[in-house]
Specification:
Alpha-Beta Plaits; D-Maltodextrin-Binding Protein, domain 2; 5-stranded mixed sheet
Length: 290
């Protein structure tokens, strides 16, 4: 039986990645001390690794594909193919940022002020490209972690990853600039994509993952509408294209269903009820495939 070798992120992205895969139909499970998850698909062999390393393994064809950060793929300058951009992170569904930060009382106000300074970061190559773009020469030191505490005594500035900025604010740091934005990506090796079976499997995973991600902010609404009120109800009812309307055995009523943004249901459902809708159901959606 052919197998697809998948690399999955160990660490902060692990739980959110497993949750997304589960919504897409692949149930990965792993014990706390193991690096080899089990999955309900005999055609997949999975391994956990740090997202910082995954693009290198895919480039070397040790893994066929991986879920990792676009930032680490660029930091490693890996020759891989980005198959799908999956905008989710540890705590939010927004891109994350690598930001230039300094102590609140630092005189540094822009990239130009970094000339001759020391910068601590995990993304040395990304910072080097940022400095080159701004025509600035500075010393960039690799940080093995706890980057926020490196300033002001060990470095003049840091470039660190943030989703919300709360950790930086807690450490009394001020954001000066965004060095790079990143999203989670599904990457694949060129050799794997040259194999027709692996290419089809990778594309199926990408399709279902993007569909599961799209569904996270949607809800399925089903309701019964009296025909005399149908026009008014359809007027306030959003949908991906147009609502589905079917006749019921009672000719005075129709069944209506549509996909809506989950955030609008708290105001939409009372309005539908006011207009005469009955039997309203709000259901979660596992995947939306365009």
């Amino acid at each position: 039986m052919p197998e697809l070798r998948i690399g999955l992120p160990k660490g902060s992205l692990q739980e959110s990645t497993f949750s997304l895969l589960r919504s897409a139909g692949w149930d990965f499970n792993v014990s706390s001390r193991s690096y080899y998850p089990t999955v309900n698909d005999p055609e997949i062999q999975a391994m956990l690794a740090r997202p910082q390393e995954l693009s290198r393994y895919v480039e070397r064809n040790v893994m066929d594909m991986a879920v990792t950060g676009l930032d680490w793929t660029r930091e490693n300058d890996s020759d891989v193919i980005v198959v799908e951009r999956l905008v989710y992170a540890k705590a939010t569904r927004n891109p994350v940022r690598w930001v230039l930060a300094v102590p609140e009382d630092s005189p540094i106000q822009s990239a130009a002020d970094l000339q001759g300074k020391v910068i601590s970061t995990e993304v040395v190559n990304l910072v080097g490209k940022y400095l080159e773009k701004h025509g600035v020469s500075a010393k960039v030191e690799f940080s093995h972690g706890a980057t926020e505490v490196k300033v002001p005594h060990l470095a003049d500035a840091i470039v660190d990853l943030t989703e919300t900025g709360s950790s930086l604010r807690a450490n009394r740091l001020r954001i000066v600039d965004t060095v790079a934005e990143s999203v989670t990506v599904l990457i694949a090796g060129r050799l794997a994509l040259a194999n027709p079976w692996k290419k089809a499997k990778i594309e199926a995973l990408a399709l279902m993952l993007s569909g599961a991600l799209a569904a996270r902010e949607k809800a399925l609404l089903k309701l019964n509408a009296p025909k005399g009120k149908l026009a008014d109800i359809l007027r306030v009812l959003p949908s991906l294209h147009s609502p589905t309307v079917n006749d019921l055995s009672d000719r005075n009523w129709t069944a209506v269903e549509t996909i809506v943004d989950a955030g609008v249901t708290r105001t939409l459902i009372p309005e539908l009820k006011r207009l005469g809708a009955e039997g309203i159901l709000q259901l979660s959606v596992n995947a939306i495939i365009p």
